[in-house]
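Hi support team,

I'm filing this because I wasn't sure whether my run with cobalamin finished correctly. The job status page said complete, but I'd like someone to confirm that the output block is well-formed before I use it downstream. Pasting the exact inputs I used:
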Amino acid sequence: MADLAALTAAIERGDRAAATEVTRQAIADGMDPETILGAMTSAMEIVGGRFQAGEIYVPEMLISARAMKESVAILEPLLVDSGVRPEFTAIIGTVKGDLHDIGKNLVAMMWRGANFEVIDLGANVAPEVFVAKAREHNARLVGVSALLTTTMVGMKDVVDSIRAAGLTDVRVVVGGAPVTAEFAAQIGADGYAPDAASAVALARRVVAAG
Ligand code: B12
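And here is everything the job wrote out:
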């Protein structure tokens, strides 16, 4: 059996070769994809804690993030089902000024797996781009991610811009480590989810609500 602690450790030290190898091994051993993903996300929690404690700096966070991304890419086909007609179109992006995209990518992946058509706008996305893309793709849902306390306030601009554009069919949901349900309500968003798995149920719920 693949050693998931070794996967966490490999991502933590930014060792892409080891991280991708253990991921492949875990898949070959038939391990549950969500358990494998859990070992990867714990690494990012450890990395964040070490950064906060001043033990590591941005370059180290970046190499860990790269190892995580490559490993997630291997896991993606197992998490995403394909084939059937999408239920609706969703737009997703990280808010302006914010370059964190790992969590947003996981939400996009889970949404694709749930059979939504997902247009991923990437990171550092301005409110007017969310509006333009939602209109262009006739989207029912806009997902906004933020990882910084300084950028999460920009989520309100996205909500306000969508409302001001008269896109009454579009629901806006938000997420990211510093975001809470209270904050989501405060900025007038239609919903919040703490992780990628619950983001699926949230999306269905807010879209079904009207
Ligand atoms: C990797 C990382 C980076 C990488 C990002 C690489 C990349 N491509 O994403 C790099 C090195 C670039 C980086 C840079 C910076 N970072 Co940084 N980073 C992190 C780190 C270690 C991990 C983030 C991560 O990927 N987590 C794993 C994912 C899976 O979790 P997640 O993003 O929370 O997503 C989940 C949920 O929140 C939710 N979710 C997320 N988005 C959405 C959206 C919707 C719609 C929904 C419903 C749900 C949802 O679902 C996801 C999956 O379950 C965190 C620490 C941490 N543990 O969060 C710090 C952290 C976020 N960074 C931090 C800081 C300070 C910075 C910098 C300012 C550092 C600097 N001095 O330059 C810069 C900012 C650059 C910028 N303008 O954005 C701080 C933020 C502090 C704060 N409260 O504001 C943190 C918390 C580190 C710390 N402990 O101090 N960082």
